[in-house]
Design goal:
The structure holds 3 protein chains of 3 kinds.
Chain A lengths: L3 H20 L26 E6 L14 H10 L4 E3 L5 E3 L19 E5 L14 H12 L14 E8 L2 E6 L6 H4 L8 H4 L20 E7 L3 E6 L12 E6 L3 H10 L4 E7 L4 H5 L4 E16 L9 H9 L3 H8 L29 H10 L3 E2 L5 E3 L2 E2 L1 E5 L5 H16 L3 E4 L4 H10 L5 E7 L9 H4 L5 H4 L11 H12 L3 H18 L2 E14 L2 E2 L18 E2 L1
Parallel strand pairs in A: 1-9, 1-10, 15-16, 15-17
Antiparallel strand pairs in A: 2-3, 4-6, 5-6, 7-8, 8-9, 10-18, 11-17, 11-18, 12-13, 13-14, 19-20
Helix pairs in contact in A: 8-10, 15-16
Chain B lengths: L1 H8 L8 H8 L1 H23 L32 H36 L2 H15 L3 H11 L4 H10 L3 H15 L2 H8 L4 H9 L4 H24 L11 H6 L10 H27 L8
Helix pairs in contact in B: 2-13, 3-4, 3-13, 4-5, 4-7, 4-8, 4-11, 4-13, 5-8, 8-11, 9-10, 11-13
Chain C lengths: L1 H28 L16 H10 L6 H13 L13 H36 L4 H15 L2 H15 L16 H35 L2 H8 L4 H23 L1 H14 L5 H10 L3 H29 L7
Helix pairs in contact in C: 1-12, 4-5, 4-7, 4-12, 5-7, 6-7, 6-10, 7-9, 7-10, 9-12, 10-11, 11-12
Classes of the chains: A alpha+beta, B mainly alpha, C mainly alpha.
Chain lengths: ~550, ~290, ~325
């Protein structure tokens, strides 16, 4: 086996030679191969060409075990592998593992406490070292290492007694049954023990700025503030890669991002995607494929249940009736956005399609309030028992479409005698204690409820998860319903998929009835790519558009 | 507001004074005065005269270009009348600019007078403090402050004032230091007049010229700064319109609705140019040394 | 001279301390903090956030944090970025070249055009050119830089398609020409204000020089106008020019910040805004200190140069 540097250099030289013979000059081997005949419907035998992915936030964190944002994920998925991966349909399939542990195949014990994972034996790190169960052990232990700034620890903190049975087999015990863990493992990228394990402090190891993984692409170079460039890993254990260079380009301005997509400088519009106002124009562009991809995120108005006015169910219902949701989606969001009644993504197999549909009905809203005893006061704002039907709504400053929707809703609320004051805050202030400790009155937020495809939402809706009361949890609306609590507890311990479906559908029905938040719309992203970029697949179960770059190729 | 500035420096029948004649002889200053007066009047009365409310949303009539239909300057992404918004925004921007100037001038004058009249140590400490503020690229500090504090118009005004008083302080300090050795000051001291009296009753009135010029230019600067900060999204927050935040969302629609970016920019440029013209005219009229450009 | 230098250094040091205390306090008083951006992450619990807060040492008293930071600064350790974990100095260093390129090219443009306009205005005093230049300079000082940039993008990128709307180069083509192509619009936009300042300054300097005896003598001797201007005027204006260049550093940085935002230029201004957005205080503080340092050093160098070149200027 060759040493690290040599491998890299030979590869580059080979690559360069190939480019020279193919195009005569490096610049010509741009992905501009549109006019080619259609015989190339299968991937090329050698990695060819370059794909530039445009992102509106800069990827800066290259150790995916550390706190990072969505745009960092594209790089992570390309450089690293997890034990499993999740398909767009929500199915979990093996990646570094050879099979998904289940009770049937003996990977999981009946009580869900004992795990046994078998690993591939043909995987190599980018530096040529072999991947083994030691790397998995190292990774799982690093996450719970108190000195390491780990990103997510949920689930991992239940893991005990990790044992390396052989280089291709690892076992551990869970402190308590936790069904969502398999989903968490699809985003737990395995780190090289022989590099990161040797680092003095894994928090600021040089590795974090020049990562070595097992993925389809190797670290190339980075121009801070502009781009990160990855190169093909010819020894990848899975299918692909078929492109030679994968570039993530940071373009903070959405207009410029779209302009560069139109002009062809960007091959694929990534995170933050094409803005809704450009959708109609983008659709009509030649040689571009523009699609609408529903995401797992729900935009909604959170009503803080601790606020007296929101404790009246009639008020919550009236507020829901008084939102002209259709206009918001069709006009403000240019038709980009799906109607939704629940937090569960419509693509999920746990989605409940039988929930009552929202309608925009000001008269209904008024009569609900009248019946509940809320009568207009001198200034036109309704009152009941000395309580004015007035509340503040907050969101982050600078989110234009949100601010527009907010002002629009403010106007229809005024029509039914409800005063909604707009008090927006800078993101860092908004998402600090103000949100975490439920200090807001009402908030307009987009929330992703699921991790991977697992339907567990204990952290969002269980009454023990109200941080303002119990000190931990993300039940920011301070929602509390004993029935939901017990269903959530049952769901997290149930490994039978059919039973879980029943549980989570019932939870959705109860929450739709209680309205701790008013659903506005399901996020739909406008994806855009050059025609001829094949193999691309949108996956709403991951946070990035670039999770399967290994399979991309130019036809 | 500019007329009152002139009033404070003028004798009765001020329009016959040498200063006034020189100011009105300055064609650019006159032009600036006319422009800003018209703009201010439009901002004060315009919203009452226009048939649209600056906050009224009409989604079906969004993005209509200027001079098409009933909207003279077109509509924004929520279908609000841009003319109405522009004038309402002008009230905010001009008020922020004006009050930031007042605050900055008071603060700057205070520090300048104390530094100029005080002893060596007081002077050194205060003026190093001034240098400290000056050595900061203002916008960095302004943004850091705006992010840290809740962005209300009052807060933005204060922040702009906090980053804009140093020029005034420098000018006043220099002026006071030179006046300090003049006969009337020495005479006052001999008469046993108190420090406070000397600083604020005797010396300060004699520095009014440079202060007025600096104040006028500070308004211009404050309006620009408000626009910068609001454009970057850290300033005045919607639904309250300001010229800066009208531009904030405009970049996104540059291709499809360029008037959203063009119109508020022209308003800002007009207002700032006016104050700069007036400041220039006053400088000539009041014989202020041309030292701070 | 030594005493002068010493006192200037001392002043600068005190300045830096003041600047750092203000910046540090303001940033850290802000509610929320760097971890609030993960509040909506479904997999991150408040317990995770509390743990990282502690690991970063953000739950300690402010003055302790400040002293530790300041002590590190003294030893050349500017801290570690919350966002990506690399040293602040490395993060800043990655963005400095882009900003220097932008500031440098825009200074060249500003000095070249500004000097020409200024001298021509002074030698053709009260001509139409002079009048237009005077008014133009004042209008240029009144135009918001970012707005000028937006209009530039609208006209030259969106409508005419001549110039790129952003970024420093095209991926895959890093030739000098490509850089220049991307550099044109941002550097001209950034230069606008400075053209105005330089032209006003040169006009004044030239007028001063023209009225002086030696110029009158030279003219009387039949030396050509061009030679008179070039030799005496520009020569005489050199000193104040150096000072002016120093004084303009903060305003250039401010302009660069706004320009970089509009043109998505990967420089320090962009970094500053991004870091503010992520509440990456160590980087924000680093940039505040770096810009203050740059300004102070530039002013210091200007002072010293002037003092060295012109013995008439009394030191201290």
């Amino acid at each position: 086996m060759k040493k690290t540097k040599e491998t890299g250099m030979t590869f580059t030289r080979r690559q360069t030679l190939r480019m020279m013979t193919a195009g005569g000059a490096i610049g010509i081997v741009a992905p501009n191969l549109l006019g080619k005949p259609a015989f190339a419907q299968t991937p090329p035998s050698e990695p060819t060409g370059r794909v530039v992915v445009g992102l509106s936030q800069e990827p800066t964190v290259f150790n995916p075990l550390m706190p990072h944002i969505e745009t960092d994920d594209g790089v992570a998925f390309s450089i690293f592998d997890a034990l499993f991966r999740i398909t767009p349909e929500g199915e979990i399939v093996p990646n570094l593992a050879t099979e998904v542990p289940t009770i049937e195949n003996g990977g999981l014990s009946e009580d869900g406490l004992q795990w046994r994972v078998k690993l591939r034996d043909d995987v190599k790190w980018h530096d040529g070292e072999a991947f083994t169960a030691e790397d998995v052990k190292f990774t799982l232990e690093l996450i719970t290492n108190p000195d390491f700034r780990a990103w997510r620890t949920t689930g991992h903190d239940l893991v005990r007694d990790i044992e390396v049975v052989s280089p291709t087999e690892i076992t551990w015990r869970m402190e308590e049954p936790f069904a969502p863990y398999i989903s968490f493992l699809t985003e737990t990228f395995i780190m090289p023990e022989h590099i990161l394990g040797q680092a003095e402090d894994p928090n600021d190891a040089p590795f974090n700025q020049a990562p070595v993984g097992t993925g389809a692409f190797k670290w190339g170079s980075r121009q801070a503030g502009d781009n990160v460039s990855l190169v093909a890993n010819p020894d990848y254990h899975g299918d692909g890669p078929y492109i030679e260079q994968l570039v993530f380009k940071y373009i903070p301005d959405m207009t410029v991002l779209y302009t560069q997509f139109r002009s062809g400088e960007v091959d694929l519009v990534g995170q933050a995607y094409i803005t809704a106002d450009n959708y109609a124009e983008a659709k009509a562009l030649e040689d571009r494929v523009v699609t609408l991809e529903p995401r797992g995120t729900l935009e909604s108005i959170y009503l803080n249940q601790a606020l007296p006015v929101f404790q009246d169910k009639a008020v919550r219902e009236a507020l829901y009736y008084a939102i002209d949701r259709k206009s918001i989606i069709d006009i403000l969001y240019f038709g980009v956005g799906g109607e939704a009644e629940t937090f569960m993504p419509s693509t999920s197999s746990y989605f409940n399609p039988d929930l009552p549909e929202h309608s925009f009905d000001l008269e209904k809203a008024k009569s609900l309030l009248d019946e509940a005893g809320w009568v207009p006061g001198a200034d036109g704002i309704r009152e009941k028992d000395g309580l004015r039907l007035s509340f503040a709504n907050s969101t982050t400053t600078g989110a234009h479409l949100r601010e527009q929707a907010q002002q629009f809703i403010q106007q229809t609320y005024a029509d039914i005698g409800v005063e909604m004051r707009i008090e927006n805050l800078p993101p860092a202030v908004m998402w600090g204690e103000f949100w975490g400790q439920s200090q807001f009155e009402s908030a307009m937020v987009g929330i992703t409820y699921l991790i991977g495809a697992d339907p567990d939402v204990t952290n969002r809706f269980h009454s023990d998860a109200i941080a303002a009361k119990s000190g931990s949890g993300s039940n920011n609306a301070q929602y509390s319903n004993p029935k939901v609590d017990s269903l959530l507890e049952e769901g997290a311990k149930t490994f039978d998929t059919e039973r879980r479906k029943e549980i989570y559908k019932e939870i959705q029905a109860i929450i739709r009835e209680d309205l701790p938040f008013l659903p506005l719309f399901r996020y739909v992203n406008v994806f855009g790519r050059k025609a001829g970029l094949e193999g691309f697949e949108a996956n709403s179960n991951v946070r990035t558009e670039s999770s399967n770059a290994a399979l991309w190729y130019w036809s | 507001m500019t007329t009152t500035d002139i009033n404070t420096t003028a004798v009765p029948r001020w329009w016959q004074s040498r200063v006034a004649r020189r100011f009105f002889g300055h064609r650019l200053a006159l032009l600036g005065l006319v422009m800003i007066t018209l703009l201010t009047l439009a901002c004060i009365f315009g919203p009452y005269l226009l048939p649209y409310d600056s906050l009224h949303i009409d989604l079906r009539g969004r993005f209509s270009p200027p001079m098409s239909g009933q909207h003279y300057l077109g509509t924004d992404p929520l279908g609000r009348d841009i003319a109405a918004r522009l004038l309402t925004a002008g009230r905010i921007s001009l008020l922020v600019g004006f009050f930031a100037m007042v605050l900055a001038t008071i603060l700057g004058t205070l520090i300048g007078v104390i530094a100029g009249y005080g002893g060596r140590v007081v002077n050194a400490v205060l003026m190093r403090f001034v240098d400290g503020f000056l050595s900061f690229p203002t916008i960095f500090m302004l943004l850091a402050l705006a992010v840290a504090l809740k962005p209300s118009p009052v807060m933005i005004t204060i922040i702009i004032a906090l980053t804009g008083w140093m020029e005034v302080a420098r000018i006043v300090e220099a002026e006071v230091r030179s006046l300090k050795e003049r006969e009337f000051v020495l005479a006052g001291r001999m008469l046993g007049l108190g420090k406070m009296h000397m600083m604020f009753r005797e010396i300060l009135p004699n520095c009014m010229g440079p202060i007025i010029v600096a104040a006028t230019l500070t308004v211009a600067r404050a309006i620009l700064l408000e626009a910068y900060v609001s454009f970057l999204g850290f300033g005045i927050q919607p639904p309250l319109p300001s010229w800066g935040n009208m531009l904030n969302g405009a970049q996104q629609y540059l291709g499809s609705a360029p008037w959203l970016a063009i119109i508020p920019g022209i308003a800002i440029t007009l207002a700032v140019t006016s104050f700069n013209f007036i400041g220039d005219g006053l400088r000539d009229a009041l014989d202020v040394r041309n030292d701070s450009f | 001279m030594a005493a002068f230098l010493f006192s200037r250094f001392l002043q600068s040091a005190v300045l830096l301390v003041i600047v750092s205390i203000i910046g540090f306090t303001v940033l850290n008083l802000m509610p929320g903090g760097p971890l609030s951006q993960f509040a909506l992450d479904p997999g991150m619990t408040p317990a995770d956030i509390a743990r990282i807060t502690e690991q970063l040492g953000l739950n300690r008293p402010l003055h302790i944090q400040y002293l530790e930071w300041a002590w590190g600064m003294l030893q050349g350790d500017w801290g570690t970025s919350f966002r990506d974990g690399s040293p602040v100095t490395a993060v800043i260093a990655r963005h400095v070249p882009a900003t220097l390129l932008l500031m440098g090219s825009s200074t060249v443009i500003a000095v070249a055009i500004g000097t020409w306009i200024g001298i021509r205005g002074a030698t053709h005093r009260y001509s139409g050119f002079d009048y237009v230049a005077t008014v133009g300079a004042m209008v240029a000082l009144s135009i918001p830089t970012f707005w000028f940039g937006l209009i530039g993008i609208y006209v030259f990128s969106l409508k005419l398609g001549w110039l790129p709307a952003g970024n420093m180069y095209t991926i895959g083509d890093q030739s000098v020409l490509n850089y220049l192509h991307h550099l044109i619009m941002p550097s001209v936009v950034l230069a606008l204000v400075h053209i105005a300042i330089w032209s006003r300054f040169m006009r004044g300097a030239t007028l001063d020089a023209i009225s002086q005896d030696f110029v009158k003598t030279a003219r009387a001797k039949g030396v050509t106008e061009r030679r008179v201007v070039m030799k005496h005027v520009v020569g005489n204006a050199m000193l104040p020019m150096i000072t002016l260049a120093g004084v303009q550093i903060p305003s250039l940085l401010t302009g660069a910040l706004v320009t970089e935002t509009v043109f998505t230029w990967p420089g320090m201004g962009r970094l500053f805004l991004d870091s503010l957005g992520y509440s990456d205080y160590p980087v924000v503080m680093g940039l505040l200190m770096f810009s203050a340092l740059l300004t102070i050093v530039a002013n210091l160098i200007a002072d010293i140069t002037v003092a060295l070149v012109d013995p008439r200027i009394r030191l201290a």
